[in-house]
Write a sequence for this structure.
């Protein structure tokens, strides 16, 4: 099997796990549940659960307690997208090849669907306690996951991102703060929780935080590039969103060519750190390398 086929096989496995943890569309709260499932089942690259599962395996994890965490991180990521697309934020109408959740269900339901996914994520992750997870490790993983999703993680980055629209004159330092928090934090969370659940040493978890930082910055630089050079059909989401919103992006600060070069350098740094583990995961290294030239 070539890399792409193997990746698709692993994505399908993850899709099955995610579906297992989605709520049934019944009861008086049916509409919000439909909106939640609509956004999660739209697809997407499933990058964060993939990174989590591969890191868990690389660090020797072999149990099932990882499964609810795989679903949970995709729920937090999806909620961040639903809210990111709202009129009050980026005001975008396409996502994952479909109309955005607020266009389909209205703004109020989209806000509630995001809130619903955030809470369901932690309810789901806590099921790791019942699947044979070591309670101390599951507790540590939950705390890290919550932190990286919150004001010192993703939400903090989104806050600075939104405020930067009016400011102008954003420094490179502030832009890196935004990229590190709005995007790298969840990628770090994916890799670090995978490692923690597998019982990895502090030293290895710290190294994965650095790797996640490099992947995350590279990933957001490429996202900024594709917002300019990509097309809606391939990307499955609106393009030109950053310019519309007067965003300062990696490309506006450094120019397209430098952005491409830096993206590659961050990705290569991540791969070289990945190669330093005693038990290497070649599939994971391949995955990170493939992100360098991604078009979606
Ligand atoms: C989009 O994330 C938001 C960013 C952090 C750039 P993805 O590009 O991973 O979106 P999906 O999950 O594939 O839809
Ligand atoms: C969003 O960054 C990162 C999130 C935490 C959702 P963007 O606003 O650039 O993401 P896209 O381009 O809409 O996916
Ligand atoms: Mg945004
Ligand atoms: Mg956006
Ligand atoms: Mg973007």
């Amino acid at each position: 099997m070539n890399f792409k086929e193997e990746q698709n096989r692993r994505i399908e496995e993850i899709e099955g796990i995610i579906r297992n943890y989605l709520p049934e569309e019944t009861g008086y709260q049916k509409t919000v549940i439909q909106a939640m499932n609509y956004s999660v089942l739209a697809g997407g690259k499933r990058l964060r659960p993939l990174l989590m599962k591969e890191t868990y395996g690389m660090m020797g994890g072999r149990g099932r307690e990882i499964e609810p965490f795989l679903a949970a991180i995709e729920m937090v990521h999806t909620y961040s997208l639903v809210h990111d697309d709202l009129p009050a934020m980026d005001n975008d109408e396409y996502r994952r090849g479909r109309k955005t959740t607020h266009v389909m269900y209205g703004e109020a339901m989209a806000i509630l669907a995001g809130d619903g996914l955030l809470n369901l994520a932690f309810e789901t992750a806590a099921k790791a306690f019942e699947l044979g997870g070591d309670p101390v490790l599951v507790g540590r993983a939950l705390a890290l996951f919550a932190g990286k999703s919150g004001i010192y993680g993703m939400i903090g980055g989104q806050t600075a991102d939104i405020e930067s629209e009016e400011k102008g004159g954003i420094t490179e330092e502030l832009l890196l703060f935004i990229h590190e928090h709005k995007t790298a934090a969840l990628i770090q969370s994916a890799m670090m929780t995978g490692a923690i659940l597998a019982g990895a040493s502090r030293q290895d978890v710290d190294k994965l935080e650095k790797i996640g930082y490099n992947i995350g910055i590279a990933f957001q630089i490429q996202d900024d590039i594709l917002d300019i050079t990509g097309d809606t059909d391939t990307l499955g989401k609106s393009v030109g969103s950053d310019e519309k919103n007067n965003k300062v992006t990696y490309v506006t600060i450094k120019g397209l060519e430098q952005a491409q070069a830096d993206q590659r350098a961050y990705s290569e740094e991540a791969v070289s750190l990945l190669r330093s583990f005693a038990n290497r995961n070649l599939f994971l290294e391949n995955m990170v390398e493939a992100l360098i030239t991604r078009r979606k």
Notes: The mean pLDDT is 97.
